[in-house]
Amino acid sequence: MTRYVAAVVLLTLVYALALGSFGPLDLLFGAGLSAALLYFSRGFVFGEGSGRGPSVLGRAVAFVPFAFAVFWEILSGTWEVTLVTLHLRPLIQPGIVAVPIGGRTPSGVSAWAVVVGLPPGSFFVDVDRERGVALIHLLDASDPETFRREQEDFYRRYQSKVFP
Q1: In 3D, which of 129, 60, 104 has the Cα closest to residue 116?
Q2: How far apart are CA 142 and CA 161, in angstroms?
Q3: Among 114, 143, 110, which Cα is nearest to 44's?
Q4: Distance of CA 47 to the CA centre of its chain
Q5: Which long-range CB contacts under 8 A does 64-69 form with residues at least 24 apart?
Q6: Predicted confidence band at 164 (pLDDT cuts at 50, 70, 90)?
Q7: Is residue 139 a contact partner of residue 80, using CB atoms and an 8 Å limit?
Q8: Which of 134, 132, 163 is nearest to 147 (CA)?
Q9: H-type helices in the chain, by residue range?
Q10: Percent of the residues in the chain that have a pLDDT greater than 70, as a whole number
Q11: Is the pLDDT of residue 156 over 80?
């Protein structure tokens, strides 16, 4: 119960800071909105129900290396697209690669879709639930096995600790 109250207070404070107002009605509305959001996302936020997810504190700590890894992916993707755009590297074989979803939860697949789409040169196309794969368009799809291994390694090392 304490963590719910602490989360509502923290979210209300963030709401008030974003709004730029600490008026009583604004705080009341922020608290109601925070409580409703926490209620409907409690399984994800607090890891209840499935027992699969890490704790909130564990997710917060694991988010730092996750964010740095995403930033590095953005930088390397930008570099690759720059080289192709300036004709310093040839455009070899763009295409779509099917990557197994594995043990990712629906929210994990959603987070993965955002992460894959952030760096230039890759785009999350669709999820094929029947085959259990995600379809990702790549600027260079000449070695799909390497890309699949990289995605699995990224999930195992960084994402699974924040967005399982």
Answers
A1: 104
A2: 30
A3: 110
A4: 16
A5: 65/158, 66/158, 66/159, 66/161, 66/162, 69/154, 69/157, 69/158
A6: confident
A7: yes
A8: 134
A9: 2-19, 24-40, 42-46, 56-85, 106-117, 144-157
A10: 92
A11: yes
User: What pTM value is reported for the model?
Assistant: 0.67
Exposure string for 28-54, b = 16+ CB within 10 A, e = fewer: eebbeebbeebeeeeebbebeeeeebb
Q: 63-87, pLDDT tens digit by residue?
A: 999 999 999 999 999 999 999 999 9
Question: Residue type at 80?
Answer: E
Residue bearing the bigger pLDDT, 149 or 164:
149
Distance CA 135, CA 125 (A): 5
